Amino acid sequence: MGDDNTNQKKRKSKWTTSYSNMSRLQAEKRLGFRIRSIKAISVDRMLANAKYSLRGEYLDVILKTKERVYDNIVEYLAIEGYPTEGDPDFKEASINHLVYATISPVLGNFIRMTRRNSIQLRSEKEIVSTDGEIGSTEEFVVVDLISVEDEKFILIVEAKRSSLGQAMKQCLLAMKDMRDNNGGVDEVYGFVTTGESWRMISYDGTFQVTNKIDLVFNTMGDEKDKWMKDYSVLVDCIHAVLSKGGIVEE
User: Which of 39, 70, 97, 125 satisfies CB 3.0 to 4.6 Å to 141 for a cystine?
Assistant: First the structure.
């Protein structure tokens, strides 16, 4: 354990400045706009933009995926408690556990359904700007391994314990660099979350961000039907990203 920490300290970064160390003003200069100028859109509109629809066999798969996500979150809440900033024992590591419990069933079922084993979740994935100036090691990045030496960035999840604003800044910077590394074509996607609340972001040269998406509530363990009806749309969002991100062959 100590050796690992020593190695991490000695490891030289491939970038000059990390996303987290950039001020909001520095980030906005890099992005070319004020972050607060992004106007939120509805989740329905974001899904429509992604041409997402449920039909036939996919509907059954998504419903089963939602049930798995529900079970995972309920188990998480029983083990680690409710994700709230008011709990001093609730750390960013706890949010990461919740993120993994949420996205892993969606990703796993998508891979099985499409047989695209090249789609992989990468932890501690380095994202570096094409000029090498900025970058970061990110906890949750989904890529398409096109070949031994070539990969395509699809989505990132940026989790912060208390600040969606800080998560948003880092996510926007990472998404810009992801798309640049993809050759500056197509769309990339991101999600920012505090565990309890999420937002979905798309970037095709212009950023769009959804209104807040609530994922958990205190009594969800006793109200599965309510969760499935009113709180499960995040599963649709993640599935839409995987379907739109240049993955599904028409």
Answer: 125
For residue 212, give the DSSP letter.
Answer: P
Alpha helices in the chain (DSSP H): 2-10, 24-31, 43-49, 56-80, 92-114, 164-181, 224-230, 233-244
- Position 169: which residue type? K
Plot region of 115 (φ>0 → left; ψ -120 to 50 → alpha; else → beta): left
Q: How confident is the model at residue 6 (pLDDT cuts 50, 70, 90)?
A: very low
What whole-number distance in Å separates Cα of residue 181 and Cα of residue 202? 16
Strand partners, 129: none
> For residue 91, is pLDDT > 80?
yes
Q: Which residues contact 244 (CB under 8 A, 6 or more apart)?
A: 50, 51, 52, 187, 189
Which of 104, 231, 228, 108 is CA-nearest to residue 157?
104
The dihedral over CA atoms of 95, 96, 100, 101, expressed in degrees to the nearest 10, equals -30
* Residues shown for the chain: 250
State the DSSP string of 31-47: HTS-GGGPPEE-HHHHH
Q: How many CB atoms lie within 10 A of CB 163?
A: 12
